[in-house]
Design a protein that fits this description.
With about 350 residues, this protein is α+β, with helices and mostly antiparallel strands. The chain has twelve helices and 16 strands. It has two domains: about 170 residues, Gcn5-related N-acetyltransferase (GNAT) (Aminopeptidase); about 150 residues, Aminopeptidase.
Length: about 350
């Protein structure tokens, strides 16, 4: 393997095609948060202002034929414990799943050689390799454990958050039949009540690029009705979210959906429709229409759409809110892996 470090944004952008092509070959890390267009927008604002500073430090590996076979998408900064660290681009708060991007057949060799490469004197003076939001079933975790054992380094693993998801059968009625009877009744009742409301209701997925700016503004306004989300939506975070939405739209995997009551938006979901999954990124509600349970109604329509359009999973991502399990989600977790050199 031939390793190289990318510290230039220009060169980082030059390999966008190779980056995304490699990602599609890595089933464990094939997530929207590792797409080049997402990562590049994240880097522009350092995660919507989550990080005060950082140095780009992406490590790539190429095979004998020159093809890209592995990427460690890293940056250098002080971590949450104020320790000099190499972290995954996308860390921590707004990117639900992160990982190394490596062909699985070379992952064991890549992780060992990566640690050796990172320990040479040409790298920043890092103390820990601090990897957040790695899915529990990622082969990166055992590969890193084996690599650290070979090198005599230390590794720690910490379970972080619930990430419930729904396996979809591909049929709406079959999906409903598979969840709790009481919840099935509630979904039908809420959808029926919305359809019979005195003011007409409808739902839609945004398709018109010329309306996208306006639709994003409306979605952020719905989010801001929640006090916690309003505090989250700083100016730089709003810029980050707009950039991410436009990047996803141009790449063809945005799903921005709304439920309207008359001429007013009652609920919105910002999802990614990527790799036969629906990834539920964020949501917003108009509390004026709380009696209609607009968030549940829109979620039901989106689940129906996902079943009817051949999606395999409906991923709620981070958070153990009770409604996710009422809709039939099963649990899994993301982990933090910290590697320390001796």
């Amino acid at each position: 393997m031939q390793f190289n470090t990318i510290s230039s944004v220009d060169y980082f952008n030059m390999i966008s095609g190779e980056w995304n092509e490699l990602l599609t070959c890595c089933s464990a890390s094939h997530v929207p948060f590792l797409r080049h267009e997402y990562i590049s927008t994240w880097w522009k604002t350092l995660g919507g202002g989550e990080w005060d500073q950082g140095e780009l430090h992406i490590v790539t590996a190429r095979g004998e034929d020159g093809s890209l076979i592995g990427i460690a998408p890293l940056f250098y900064s002080q971590n949450r414990e104020d320790v000099p660290a190499l972290l995954l681009l996308g860390s921590v708060e707004i990117s639900d799943y992160l990982d190394l991007i490596v062909r699985e057949d070379v992952l064991p060799e890549f992780t060992t050689e990566l640690l050796r490469y990172l320990s040479n004197e040409n790298n920043p003076s890092w103390q820990v390799l601090d990897l957040f939001n790695i899915p529990e079933d990622s082969p990166t975790i055992p590969a890193l454990k084996n690599a650290t054992e070979k090198l005599g380094w230390e590794i720690q693993q910490e379970k972080l958050q619930h990430c419930p998801y729904i396996p979809l059968p591909g049929d709406w009625e079959e999906y409903l039949a598979g969840i709790d009877k009481k919840q099935r009744h509630e979904i039908r009742r809420k959808m029926r009540r919305a359809n019979e409301f005195a003011v007409s209701t409808r739902w839609y997925i945004v398709e018109d690029e010329y309306e996208l700016e306006h639709e994003i503004t409306d979605f952020l306004a719905l989010m801001a009705q929640d006090p916690d989300k309003d505090r989250f939506l700083t100016d730089v975070m709003r810029t980050q979210m707009r950039d991410s939405v436009f990047a996803a739209y141009k790449a063809g995997w945005l799903q921005l959906a709304f439920l309207t009551v008359g001429d007013e938006k009652a609920a919105g979901y910002l999802n990614f429709d990527y790799a036969d999954h629906i990834w539920v990124y964020n949501s917003g509600l108009n509390f004026k229409f709380r009696e209609l349970s607009p968030g549940w109604v829109l979620l039901a329509y989106l689940l129906q759409w996902a079943n009817e359009n051949g999606k395999k999973f409906f991923d709620f991502m981070r958070g153990d809110e009770s409604y996710k399990y009422r809709f039939g989600a099963v649990d899994r977790f993301i982990h933090r892996v910290v590697v320390s050199k001796n």
